[in-house]
Each structure stands twice: as structure tokens, then as C-alpha cells.
Task: structure prediction
Amino acid sequence: MNDVSKQINAEKEHVEIALSNLKETMTRKEKSIIELAAIGTFLHNIYNGIENILKQVLNVKDVDIPKSDTWHKELLDLSISIRIISESLSDRLYEYLTFRHFFIHAYGFMLDEAQLKDLANNIPDIWSQFIVEIENFLR
Result:
């Protein structure tokens, strides 16, 4: 478990850096396509960190990580079913999963500033809730 704790802590540190960078970028009054792409990248990074932590927890519990084309969605579903995270948190994370899919398959100029603002404003609370639920599960 010590190795997994180190890996989870490393992911937490990386997400915290991405959150800090996101916050800094959000303070800019005028947002060009460059800032919008940066916001998208940081949101993507944060969601990837969340998925990486979920995978680490599943590994600790000897639960196989889904390997299908829809494994990202299945990861959330599996995390609910074994009570790593709550259904309400999963519902909130699903919006970021959907954004992740869009971000990977779209072009930067297609990013919507209003959507990015909503996602960026909500992610600190979601991250806090995620950490609480992960720590409760691991106890």
C-alpha cells in the first residue's frame, strides 16, 4: 500500500499544480485562443489525474481496470459500484469526461469560453469532494 500511497500523492501534487495554473489563467481578463487552449489543457490534466487515482485504487483492491473502447465511462461506473466514489460525484465528473473526449478529438479553436468558465469554476470543489471520498474509501 505504501507504493500506491506514493503514486496517489504524486498524482495529487500534479493535479494541484494544474489547478494552480488553471486559477492563474482564469484571472486573465481577455482570453485569446491561447488562454482557452491552456484552460482546456489544465482541465484535461486534472481529469486525467482523477482517472489515474481511480486506477491506482482499483489496483490496490485487485479490481481489473476496464479495457474496452468505453473504458473511461466504465471506470466511473466501476468506481461507483465498489463505492470508491459516490454517484453524485460521478455525475459531476461525467461532465469532465465528456469534455475530455471533446478536447482530445476537437480543435482548439472550437473551445467555448462559457463552457470552459463553468468547468473551471466548478473543478476546485469537485476535486475537494473527490479527495475526501478517496481518502474515506482508503481508510
